[in-house]
Amino acid sequence: MIDFSLLNCRAVCGQDENFLFELYASTRAEELDAWGWNQSQREAFLQMQFKAQRWSYQINFPQAEHQIVEYCHRPVGSILVNRRPTEILLVAIALLPKYRNQGIGTRLIQTLLDEAAQNHQIVRLQVIWHNRAFHLYERLGFYKTSHTTSHIQMEWQLSKASSFTISHQSISSRN
Q: What residues does the N-acetyltransferase domain cover (predicted)?
């Protein structure tokens, strides 16, 4: 059981690079297991994809806030959010496997939804077709707006959100 009072977010720093790679690799493990690659093939592919993803985020979202999610002062995930005057874009969110399905993702996203409601903003995201988080987003009141062959675009607006509510405290941010 997660004690949410021990959950914290802080800005990503240079010392987080190894953790961020480990986190990225954990999000691709199931997919790569099906390919039957040896460890060196997996490592080379993951390094290439990780660097490409980081580069893409820096180019496309230079003002985004990238934070490490900590539980008991240990990194357990990350969240990348790009804020604009009328919208909040949830660019990426990931948790280590051990910390998934325990309410942490819900808590992080609900905090963004509360911010958006307070500021009359829309929250947008995209999710890959096979990502199980799609169902979480639907439960939180996101709806599909469009799709590509690989991703589903979703958004949340207070005026269209379901009556989903959660009793929570905002996550503190350390500077």
A: 7-159
* CA–CA distance, 141 with 174 (Å, rounded to integer): 28
Q: What residue ranges do the domains of the chain occupy?
A: 4-174
Query: Are 13 and 67 contacting, i.e. CB atoms less than 8 angstroms apart?
Result: no
The architecture of the domain spanning 4-174 is 3-Layer(aba) Sandwich (3.40)
Buried b (16+ CB within 10 A) or exposed e, 45-83: ebeeebeeeeeebeeebeebebbbbbbeeebbbbbbbbb
The predicted model scores a pTM of 0.88
97 exposure class (CB count in 10 Å sphere: 0-12, 13-18, 19+): exposed
Q: Average pLDDT, stretch 6-21?
A: 97
